[in-house]
Design brief:
This protein is mainly alpha-helical. The protein has 2 domains: 10-69; 75-152. It has helices at 10-40, 46-69, 81-107, 110-151. Helix 1 (10-40) runs antiparallel to helix 2 and helix 3 (81-107) runs antiparallel to helix 4 (110-151). The longest helix is centred in the C-terminal third of the chain and has 42 residues, at 110-151. It is globular and about 60 Å long. InterPro entries: DUF6773. Keywords: Membrane, Transmembrane, Transmembrane helix. It holds the Pfam family DUF6773.
């Protein structure tokens, strides 16, 4: 397959990359927001969320794989225990609050909603921390390998 020459100069290429970058993250956070709103409004049926979930998870897997393959973690954050802990707490708290609201809306039992929110906080926070810890280890190994290859 022949690759066509770009009609863009370097400045335009950088601008296009910035536009694509912003569009990708807009889609990522937009899909997450749509799914959360649907859950909070009572659209709990799995078949109603399946399309958004498939696109969201495909985007997650692609971004994770591409970034780790190229030795990229984040522009501002480092893959440290402190960062992983804070990110996991944020994810756990937001999930716990969302499931507290969903449970209270559906059953009108405060104690049950607190229990549901707490369990979801612990599960999501723990799984997020474990995932971030594993992937930060994979990332560090990949960076080390890329640095060794560049030295040769």
């Amino acid at each position: 397959m022949k690759k066509n020459k770009s009609n863009l100069d370097e400045r335009q290429e950088l601008k296009l990359l910035k536009i694509e970058h912003n569009g990708c993250w807009f889609a990522f956070w937009g899909l997450l927001a749509v799914m959360l709103v649907q859950l909070l409004l009572g659209n709990n049926d799995a078949k109603n969320l399946a399309g958004e979930w498939i696109v969201f998870m495909s985007l997650c897997v692609y971004l994770l794989t591409a970034c780790i393959k190229n030795g990229i973690w984040d522009r501002r954050l480092k893959p440290t225990l402190k960062t992983n802990t804070i990110a996991s707490l944020i994810a756990g708290i937001l999930t716990g609050i969302a499931w507290f609201i969903i449970s209270y809306r559906n059953y009108h039992k405060f104690a049950g909603a607190v229990a549901t929110g707490s369990i979801m906080f612990l599960c999501v926070g723990g799984l997020c921390f474990a995932g971030l810890t594993v992937f930060s280890g994979v990332y560090k190994k990949r960076v080390k390998k890329l640095e060794e290859e560049s030295e040769e």
